[in-house]
Amino acid sequence: MRAPILWMALGSAFCFALPAGSQTTAVSPHQLYDSLNGVRVDPAAVYPVKQVELFRADVKLTFEEGTLAFLTPVDGRVTGVVFSGHGRAFTAPRDPVEKQQMARFLGVPVLDEEFRSAYIRFSDGAAEELAGQFCRSNLSAQADPAYVAMWNQLLPHLNAPHSLRILADWLSANPRPYFAAALDGVERGMFDFVFDLRREEQVQLGQWHTLDGTRYYDVWASFRAASAPALGSAFRASHYSLETSILPDRSLDGTANVTIRAEREGERLITFELSRLLNVDSVIGPGGEELPFFQNEGLSQRERVVRGNDSLCVVLSEPPHRGREFTLRLRFRGSVISDAGNGVVFVGARGNWYPHLGGPDSFADYDLTLRWPRKLRLVATGTKLDEREEGDFRIGRWRVEKPVPVAGFNLGEYASASVTESGYAVEVFANRQLEQALRRRLAPLAQDIPMGQVTIGPEGPRGRARLEMAMPPPSPADALRQLAREVSSSIRFYEAYSGPFPYRQLNVSQIPGTFGQGWPGLLYVSTFSFLPADAQIRAGLTPAAQEHFSELVPFHEVAHQWWGNVVGWESYRDQWIDEAFANYLALLFADSQKNPGCALRDWLERYRARLLEKRSGEDFSAAEIGPLTLGSRLEDSKSPDGFERVIYPKGTWVIHMLRMLLRDSSGRNPDARFLALMHTLITKYAYRALSTEDLQREIEAVMTSAMDLEDTHSMDWFFDDWVRGVGIPHYRVKYTVKRLDSGYLVRGKLYQSGVPRGFIAPVPLFASIGSGKPLPLGTVIASGEENSFHFVTPNAPRKILVDPQMTLLCSVE
User: Fold this and answer.
1) 732: β partners
2) Helices 160-171 and 29-37 sit at what angle, rounded to 10 degrees?
3) Is residue 461 scored above 50 in pLDDT?
């Protein structure tokens, strides 16, 4: 924002002047917030416009012809405009990934869209820019009561999402300009353009879309603006002291004392994650003062549940200097514990049941004191220091020994079993009963029998007109000991790859549903993983789903104790790393429990098939949804389960391919380089974030000469193709065989398709000679559509095989 003196000087030179800017007056944050929410069209600032332009980053908005009006000033500042008429939005992202995503949603890699109306809010100099253009064009304000009335009916529904963001700039000693436009496109309907210098990716374009009753936000493009500085977090939490009571009605009443460090100068607004199901009663500042806060302002309880935000914004009395530590005390209450029926309860808001500051790279110390009904058992993150009874309640205390990114708990009418090893203990908890939804799926089955087989006796009908298969429902608690032993075995297996287990205690708790999560020292594992095979079949699981819940889910979450809870990720673009390492380790563990090579190969083949699959009604395969670096953006209206379809199968294949590239079959330990890489990552990035760029640098530090395909000592070719790119290469071979005095000359071409022209991959070729194992011929570096090769082999091959050992994610003709 320009200084007030400049704004007033400009105003005096113009043929008209907007209200002069000023420093925020001594009104409360809530008063400013309410004023920002209450802005309406200024009836004295409505202008007929023609060929007016605004540029933000790589986006150009042109108001070609129509009516544009400024909104009423707040605290002497204009924060928005509205427009009706004919306009155009244009941008062409420079990043190839963003071009691919824009083409996926729009059909072309650019946005060139006409719009009929625009609602724009800002904290930058947009009002001055527009005023300057108006004056140069000799525009004058015109009365238009109908236009003012039309927009004033809409503004109460549009203002709130922008008010806090503008307020953040007004409260900051170092404002970071904000510009957000909601545009009514002629072809594409309502869409958004945001340019926000408080975001790590300052530019975003996207659109809300409803599919089968569920709303998705489709991000068309999101990228950093040229030369925009990296900000990092304004505040980080270093310690949480949580005191929480779970009442008999399962509601939660808690206090959080959070020690926070200021990472940037001049900021006053702190944003916590907190479930919308919880209400904050008070926030007390470091000096004992009560601080203003914002949590779903103006929403009813029903609206809060339906469309509220899982966030809490707290306003400090004054901006702390960088490096200063202070403590906030927050009181909150509400219900985040869900009832699945049949006596099964669980924590629904697992990651935001307390005010949490920061993302997956925000490691902090935790001290938890929990009070809960005595009939239940409770498990939590950390080492249990104490547990005692107090009337109808139990009180326990847990403390973490090392920093963790998040803390959690779970509870139920649990049975348990434990295994103690040197250095750690595993305890598994499960309900004796099934949740209601699963209990209904496993209800006794009925089978029709022909009436001719029914006889009537003194006691009534005999036979089986309706034969009840009276199989009793299984109890999740029956699997406790077996699962505890398997989890303990997986820990011992993973330690060879990831180093010593990072915690003294690992608690494994049952949770209804079809998912799992691995919090530090605490796993949430689906009920399906506790069921025997026959019950899984009765519940309707396919053989592949059975293997998923039995072979992968619990052990994938165990691997997250290292990959996710020791090594974090920097942004949504890097989450794939922890998911991929955790999943690949789970496959290796499953492989170690069976005939070596079988489970791993089976899962890799299954994942390849999933990536190549095109579902009914889709014109794209899973591999074409987007690259690994899109992370959570893979879930959109076109692919609601895109994260699952891409991250796990492709991420797993990427780690497998890296392992194969680093492998030295001639050494005593073929995986020595891969193991060294993993140990380096765990050690070097312990309790901090690991980015995709970091991972590439660490691989380049241990890469072999055979991996240097571009002779630059860089792994760009691999990361550009497999991590930041889309598509799976398809290969076919044509060849001839000519007899030589010394053997056979095999000459041919390897054809590569299904990927961009610049795609590079080392493709191993083998010769099928007879009934024995295929013999390696060599590796062809595929770098285009046609790649010539020739080899000399002692025997005439019956067939040339492409990568029969499955070291490369590809399809073969």
Assistant:
1) 751
2) 140
3) no
Please state the separation of Cα 603 from the chain's center in Å: 23
**What would the two tokens of residue 341 be?**
């029926």
Task: Look up residue 765 and give its two tokens.
Answer: 């070729």
Are the C-beta atoms of 707 and 715 separated by less than 8 Å? Answer: yes
Question: Cα–Cα distances in Å, from 469 out to 181, 444, 448, 537?
Answer: 62, 6, 11, 15
Query: How do residues 22-37 score in pLDDT, each as one tens digit?
Result: 455 568 999 999 999 9
Q: Mapping DSSP to helix (H, G, I), strand (E, B) and coil, where does residue 366 land?
A: strand
- 185: β partners: 115, 189
Q: What is the per-residue pLDDT across 142-162, written as a single tens digit (0 to 9) for each?
A: 999 999 999 999 999 999 989
Cβ-contact 630, 101 below 8 angstroms: yes
Q: Strand (E) positions, 342-423?
A: 344-347, 365-373, 377-380, 383-390, 393-399, 409-412, 414-421
Amino acid at 303: E
Strands 365-373 and 235-246 come out as: parallel
483 three-state secondary structure: helix
**Burial of 5 per CB tally in 10 Å (0-12, 13-18, 19+):** exposed
- Rounded Cα–Cα distance for residues 574 and 567 (Å): 11
**What's the rounded Cα separation, in Å, for the pair 650 and 431?**
35
pTM: 0.92
Q: In whole angstroms, what is the distance from residue 767 CA to residue 781 CA?
A: 17
Please give the distance of CA 334 from its chain centroid, rounded to a whole number. Answer: 26
Amino acid, res. 227? S
Closest CA to 557 of 598, 527, 520: 520
Beta bridge partners of 256: 242, 330
Question: 427 forms bridges with which residues in the sheet?
Answer: 418, 507
Distance of alpha carbon 310 from the chain centroid:
15
pLDDT greater at residue 463 or residue 778:
778
Q: Give the residue carrying structure tokens 């434990």.
A: 418
Q: Is the pLDDT at 317 greater than 60, yes or no?
A: yes
| pLDDT range class, residue 302, cuts 50, 70, 90 | low
Chain segment 466-522, per-residue pLDDT in tens: 434 456 789 999 999 999 999 999 999 999 999 999 999 999 999 999 989 999 999
3-state secondary structure labels for all residues of 220-239: EEEECCCCCCCCCCCEEEEE
